[in-house]
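ok so heres the complex, two chains, lmk if somethin looks off
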Amino acid sequence: MSERLYAKLAVIGCGLIGSSVILAARAVGVVGRIAVYDASPAARGRIRELGFADDVADDPRDAVRGADLVIFATPPLSIGPAAAQVADVLKPGATVTDVGSVKAAVAEALGKVVPAGVFVIPGHPIAGAETSGPDAGFATLFRDRWTILTPRITDDPAYAEALARLTTFWEALGAHVDVMDERHHDLVLAVTSHLPHLIAYNIVGTAADLEEVTRGEVIKYSAGGFRDFTRIAASDPIMWRDVFLANKDAVLEILGRFTEDLQALSRAIRWGEGDKLQELFTRTREIRRGVIDAGQETAEPDFGRQRREPLV
Amino acid sequence: MSERLYAKLAVIGCGLIGSSVILAARAVGVVGRIAVYDASPAARGRIRELGFADDVADDPRDAVRGADLVIFATPPLSIGPAAAQVADVLKPGATVTDVGSVKAAVAEALGKVVPAGVFVIPGHPIAGAETSGPDAGFATLFRDRWTILTPRITDDPAYAEALARLTTFWEALGAHVDVMDERHHDLVLAVTSHLPHLIAYNIVGTAADLEEVTRGEVIKYSAGGFRDFTRIAASDPIMWRDVFLANKDAVLEILGRFTEDLQALSRAIRWGEGDKLQELFTRTREIRRGVIDAGQETAEPDFGRQRREPLV
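and the predicted structre for the whole thing:
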């Protein structure tokens, strides 16, 4: 068990991430009482059945009252309104954070409604899955994953203390913590997460709409690469709608680069420029080696049916 | 052990698929002697060390001579030239097949050089991995995967017998076999495999070329979705160069559809049309359910670090 960091944790929004935070925090004992609120009455009922929180509130203000750490784990565009609803009951000296995939828009929204004397430290654990809802959570989700915090720049020692404590909290959950400017976070994530999701959603949509190839064929022969995209494109629709709307500028910038490059690749195929294709395909292998060297994934293939993901 | 189907098997090209065919055929005992040839002297040396073939020939003609089944497992554009090299030593009544991801171009190339009296039945096992070379093979690669055969249409009973035997061969290796028109195969695979690879190569290339985001950052924060693309984009460069050149028309057609759809999606983001985004992201979930229902992947998440592939 780790040191107790917060006497009371409140989690607002209890999907995959919210429930995983609760399970992980409980497992390592870094918080005392845990209160949770979810906007969906069905989800609240389910959380009561699962029994992993001390209090399941029907009003978010009841969950937040007296909490030392408040984590907003709702889709990005709901974080501001959710914070506004509870702003006047936030405990002075409490820390307010979130887990959204977009940081500049969330930081701005929180900054507008959270009163002085409460420490706003936006955050983003880079971990997840295509599953959602309170049943999806698991205590090891954040282990060996990066959590990025985007604190404001200040020489307030109390804020620095709050940041250090929140860092320790995430480390206790198994994460590595980085601190970053919120706009840079949004650009980095536009590349490593938002564009991959956009592309996956798009390719699955394109495949579903073809007339010459049936949906049954697409599914049947999906082991050739497509299947990986279907998994990504099964991610939570509302969360991802919010991500693209809240990080519009960075996503459109990166998408513009991607489209330019794709047009060049298309042209190389049309004109039979094999050397250009081979050069690119060889270069992209280096990045894969980087991913493996950085411990983001194993290089050792596993030959079990489900772990190995066969391509063509 | 299954019934012996071919007294001698020759495999030309011994990468991931070639070596897996040999290991799988040997494991179930459907062939007698196995001869292999690879254009790379280093690969031939390695195959001798691994010891999974009876004969490792330095001349493909020696491997093919007397073989009842000849499998070309080279990159698609090498199949025609490789077949031309051995055409005059093919045994009358033998079956010639291949494992290429493109079928119309390969069928045409084989049809031009293989003499009458030898049965050409192009094939494509939809299985693989991003690994390559003779060390990459494993006997269970084809288990519960589809193999598509694209035979010519004929009422020759000897050809029908050869097709039935080759079907039994793939089934003995654990595969399910479908028969399909070669042009339709190429269109289906353009959707389920070729476009996903093209997109993955492209996004990894785009990410590597950014100035504002370092390569180190891309790798470090790759768990948000990008990592899956790096795996696909680590596939064999020469094989994939050949796939795009040999299936140009179908790939460009499907790519055109994808690009149109992506432009519409980009526009929806720019204009903040959340409903359109949410509608697409909800629809793509259905395809995922189809993939799971069809047994192409498990719905049950596994919480081990390497099996679970966390997204944001």
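quick notes: The two ends of chain A are 46 Å apart (CA to CA). thats all i got rn
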